[in-house]
Amino acid sequence: KARDYINIQLKEFQVKRTAGLGTMYGPTDQQLQNAKGDKVKEQRIVEETLLPKLQQYLKEIDDGSSKECPKKQALCSALSTVIQRFFVTRSNPNSPVDKVHHFVSREKSFKSRLMAKNRKQDILGHNLRLQPYFEVTRCNHCQNILWGVSPQGYHCSNCELNIHRLCAKDLKEECPGPAQLKNAEGSKIGKFIDKLSTRNHHQGGKRAFSELE
Q1: What are the tens digits of pLDDT across the range 71-82?
Q2: What is the pLDDT of residues 46-85, one digit of tens each?
Q3: Quick one: how far is CA 128 from the chain centroid?
Q4: Is residue 17 a contact partner of residue 23, using CB atoms and an 8 Å limit?
Q5: What is the DSSP-derived secondary structure letter of residue 67?
Q6: Which phi and psi angles does 123 have, rounded to 5°?
Q7: Which of 61, 65, 168, 179 sits at 20 to 30 Å (Cα–Cα) from 11?
Q8: What are the phi and psi torsion angles at 40 (to 5°)?
Q9: Does residue 124 share a domain with residue 83?
Q10: Are 68 and 85 in contact (CB under 8 A)?
Q11: How far is CA 143 from CA 73, 110, 127, 137, 210, in A?
Q12: How far, in Å, CA of 177 to CA of 189, rounded?
């Protein structure tokens, strides 16, 4: 589905570009052609088009700190990866490029180092640890899918709770304690997860649908 969605977006972009609306996204085709192979002109395009867009996304994420925005985080990582891999020759801690996780970088960015300090949290008895998710998993707090740049959320090693990083700040239920998954049905942990799911179910449908759009 993701590939089909991207193909549709590419077709829409090509139609707008053919219609002469390509400047909606940045430089004209002629400007791009003239800049090809010219490092000075390429750098100017990066500074005038790509960096401002990255700064805009970062500002929107900061302004919306009360609500997680994995889509913008993924866009920031994709954009910073392109800039860093092809146009930036040296690292700069003050640059927005180095404040975002890069998809193919082996070096830890500023944000990665900051996140490393917050890999573990203890909230209301929950032993929360950041972890990557490799299959569809919903947040037990808001019912939305845990997705985006890895690690996507926290996992409680005691009660098997899965939750967005920002949703963890709103967690109000105490951890019922360790339990085996195979014995979870009808147990304290099972009732705890059911309580969370039932309480937030009326919000989950709309939010999950909006995330997939």
Answers
A1: 777 788 888 888
A2: 888 888 888 888 888 777 654 556 677 778 888 888 888 7
A3: 19
A4: no
A5: S
A6: -125, 120
A7: 61
A8: -65, -45
A9: no
A10: no
A11: 19, 30, 20, 9, 12
A12: 8
Q: Between the CA atoms of 9, 15, 16 and 22, what dihedral angle is there, to the nearest 10 degrees?
A: 90
Of the three residues 110, 133, 159, the one that is the final residue of a domain is 110
What's the rounded Cα separation, in Å, for the pair 179 and 185? 10
Q: For the chain, how many structural domains are there in total? A: 2
Q: Which amino acid is at 29?
A: D
Neighbouring C-beta atoms of residue 195, cutoff 10 Å: 13
Q: Is the pTM of this model over 0.70?
A: no
Q: Which two tokens stand for residue 123?
A: 């909230």
Tokens 């997680």 map to which residue?
Answer: 68
Q: d(Cα 162, Cα 158) in Å, to the nearest integer?
A: 11
Domain shared by 85 and 127, yes or no: no
State the burial class of residue 76 (Cβ atoms within 10 Å of its Cβ: 0-12, 13-18, 19+): buried
Q: Where are the alpha helices (DSSP H) in 19-138?
A: 29-35, 39-45, 51-63, 70-86, 110-116
